[in-house]
């Protein structure tokens, strides 16, 4: 009996150690991505080329996410080594606000990524904005006449607010939001 208990404890300790190692590796990867990203966009040892403007990203919003204000951390889409993650939802100004982070997976030598920023040669940037940025569809791909009543952008994130009144009939099936305020880049170490 004592032997079984000791074996179970040893296995439990191994599982905990493996879990901690995995969490540490993920944490290190996120910080490494952030460091490489900063070097790339500031052109510190990297060449950065704008490849395409107005890259459309389709985000499928599930019904549950449209009813509750909370932090989610759910991957909505992935394209060109970049993940789009629903960070949180909130009820603001008569609507539901969705905040989406843009998470590029950066390679140290070369790669591609998507951004909502246009990086300038001198080190500055501005947010990409060419109307219309937003299109709203039902789950069958039919375009809906729903307006984004507010939108904002930040460093590697954007948010948008849909009117509760206009979107409530779609809560049961969810919506698809297409956002084309995204720019594609290629980079390489110099």
Automatic annotation (TrEMBL):
So which domain of life are we looking at? Bacteria
Tell me the leader sequence span.
1-25
Q: Which organism is it from?
A: Paenibacillus artemisiicola
Any idea which UniProt keywords this protein has? Signal
* Designated name of the protein: Uncharacterized protein
């Amino acid at each position: 009996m004592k032997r079984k208990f000791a074996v179970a404890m040893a296995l439990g300790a191994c599982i905990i150690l493996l879990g901690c190692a995995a969490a540490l590796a993920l944490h290190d990867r996120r910080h490494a991505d952030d460091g490489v990203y900063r070097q790339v966009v500031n052109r510190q040892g990297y060449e950065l080329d704008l490849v395409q403007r107005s890259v459309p990203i389709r985000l499928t919003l599930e019904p549950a996410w449209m009813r509750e204000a909370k932090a989610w951390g759910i991957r909505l889409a992935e394209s060109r080594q970049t993940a789009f993650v629903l960070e949180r939802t909130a009820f603001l100004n008569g609507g539901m606000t969705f905040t989406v982070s843009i998470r590029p997976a950066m390679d140290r030598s070369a790669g591609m990524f998507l951004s909502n920023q246009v990086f300038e040669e001198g080190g500055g940037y501005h947010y990409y904005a060419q109307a219309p940025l937003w299109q709203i569809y039902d789950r069958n791909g039919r375009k809906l006449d729903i307006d984004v009543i507010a939108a904002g952008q930040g460093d590697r994130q954007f948010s948008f607010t849909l009117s509760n009144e206009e979107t409530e009939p779609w809560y049961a099936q969810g919506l698809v939001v297409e956002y084309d305020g995204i720019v594609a880049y290629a980079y390489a170490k110099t």
